[in-house]
Amino acid sequence: MKPVRVGLVGLGTVGAGVFQTLRDNHDEILRRVGCDIVVTMACRRDLAEARAIVGEQLPLTTDPHEVIASPDVDVVVELIGGVDAARELVLAAIAAGKHVVTANKALLAVHGNEIFAAAQERGVMVAFEAAVAGGIPIIKALRESLAANRIEWIAGIINGTTNFILSQMRDKAVSFDEALAEAQALGYAEADPSFDIQGTDAAHKAAIMSAIAFGIPVQFDKAYVEGIEQLSGVDIRYAEQMGYRIKLLGLVRRRGTEGVELRVHPTLVPARRLIANVEGVMNAVMVRGDVVGTTLYYGEGAGASPTASAVIADLVDVARTARGSPLARVPHLAFQPEALRDEVVLPMEQAWTGYYLRLLVLDQAGVLARVATILAESGISVGSLLQREAREVGGEGSRRTDLIILTHEAREGAMNEALALLQALPAVLAPIVRIRKEELV
Ligand code: NDP
Ligand code: HSE
Questions:
Q1: Sign of dihedral through CA atoms 196, 202, 203, 208?
Q2: 104 CB less than 6 Å from ligand 1?
């Protein structure tokens, strides 16, 4: 069989990992595919750096369009990152009739619908296993292995950088800034790490998963997104005392006929759940299907090798199908394009979740009762409560204490209203900390 010829655009952390893995595991991959997968051209702006990675023989260019136009390239692998230049490059590759493999979740979250439509029209594949959860084959699991199911919800630790930071802070008492710098040095973080810590990267991935799980267009712009910047060590410790860990979770959930929830935020998870014990750069995705029940996928979520593993899996798919009709195999978003539904993404106010609340209150008779009354009148049921011994901070009547409340599931809108009332109580002395909580059963 003729080899499948690859043009690598982007030779950074992931691009270099792909090049090295194709070389190191050449024989194993050849046995799986039945034909060679050969890099015939590579591209980055710094040619000296590129040469150091690929050696002397491979043709190099600084212009991605040279790769697209090359008659020696069947598949363009986009690994430059970013949105605008990547969109232009991917659309040009599709227009030229080239298959595309990309790890770029930002690109697909923002322009995925346009890109998949163009690929469908042109009859080429756009494969993106590496775009979600690094080395974990979650795209294939959702699109193919769970095809018998109506997916009910997905909850995932889908950003390695933030999980690494939270683990380092908790276990090694490393500061936020030090942990982030380490994640950057290890090649986990995005070029702009605010994408990681503000939850944007996880929301990109959650939006992609919601599309292939529910058969809806990619709707990143509708996602509710909250990162880990506001998270304090105090809440991590209180959560632990109450049997929970705090994780940045991406959540997508079907809500009957109402629509779907699409949200990313720090979340309390029972410490006994496997996912609560996923540490460092590891990712984990729980998927609940109506037939299979709950499944869990675990692995390295970022870094050169795990991501290269996913990129090459896509190359293998392309290579296997390139001789037949690629579109007959698995549609880009798992569902037939004409069967995609414009389901509503619910506003966060309509989401249902549990809550952790931390209130700094005056330690006076009646305060707890007033707090409980407001929650009860808002229809919010308290699951458990922790009150630390009060500390003196001044004269008479100024003893204060942290009141930690875990609630059962409630509607976000009801909680917003209750929080406004609680915050207005004179006995509440500081902004209330609210962190969502999921039992994941
Ligand atoms: P890097 O910043 O390490 O690499 C980007 C590469 O693209 C560099 O070689 C850069 O080299 C090249 N490049 C950038 N712009 C251009 C351009 N206009 N023309 C030609 N070359 C260009 O990024 P990563 O490898 O970390 O990430 C690549 C993609 O993979 C991103 O979309 C990222 O989100 C995704 N991803 C990354 C993971 C990771 O763990 N790092 C995991 C999963 C996905 P030069 O500056 O010399 O041009
Ligand atoms: N910056 C991303 C992360 C890379 O930390 O998870 C993998 O998508």
A1: positive
A2: yes
Asked: is 141-300 a CATH 3.30.360.10 domain? The reply is yes
The whole-angstrom separation of Cα 317 and Cα 29 is: 11
Other Cβ atoms closer than 10 A to 234? 12
Q: Is 201 in the pocket of ligand 2 (CB under 6 A)?
A: yes
Residue 252 is classified by DSSP as E
205 included as an active-site residue? yes
Q: What ranges do the domains of the chain cover?
A: 4-127, 141-300, 352-437
The rounded Å distance from CA 290 to ligand 1 centre is: 38
Q: Which residue of 104, 139, 159 sits with most ligand 2 atoms within 8 Å of its CB, as the best mutation to test the pocket?
A: 159
Question: Can you give the pLDDT of all 441 residues of the chain as single tens digits?
Answer: 789 999 999 999 999 999 999 999 998 888 778 789 999 999 999 999 999 999 999 999 999 999 999 999 999 999 999 999 999 999 999 999 999 999 999 999 999 999 999 999 999 999 999 999 999 999 999 999 999 999 999 999 999 999 999 999 888 888 899 999 999 999 999 999 999 999 999 999 999 999 999 999 999 999 999 999 999 888 999 999 999 999 999 999 999 889 999 999 999 999 999 999 999 999 999 999 999 999 999 999 999 999 999 999 999 899 878 755 454 455 667 576 777 888 899 999 999 999 999 999 999 999 999 999 999 999 999 999 998 777 766 555 678 999 999 999 999 999 999 999 999 999 999 999 999 999 998
The domain made up of 352-437 has a fold known as: Alpha-Beta Plaits (3.30.70)
What's at 9, amino acid-wise? Answer: V
With tokens 């406004």, the residue in question is 420
**Quick one: tokens of 158?**
């889908």
Which residue in 98, 105, 140, 205 is the catalytic one? 205
What is the second-level CATH architecture of the domain 4-127? 3-Layer(aba) Sandwich (3.40)
Among left, alpha and beta (phi > 0; psi -120 to 50; other), residue 181 is alpha
Ligand closest to CA 14? 1
Q: Which ligand minimizes its atom distance to the CA of 104?
A: 1
The CB of 80 under 6 Å from ligand 1? The reply is yes
